[in-house]
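Entry type: protein chain
Record version: 2
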Amino acid sequence: MNDADSEEVGQRIIQLEVEHRDLDDVIKRLEEAVYVDQLQLKRLKRKKLLIKDTITHLKSSLIPDQFA
């Protein structure tokens, strides 16, 4: 992976981390509400998990392969 690709991946990670934090805030507010739409809450949690998995995958792609 060249430097331009690494920088692009780094920027994408930052965007996803912001989105992940925002979803976390929304989920917390929904859980504290009097009426909770369980389906919406479940979808948001699933989306948050997918974003976390994507972040993990992108971060691992930035780690150079090392020969043992």
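Comment: The first helix runs from residue 3 to 32.
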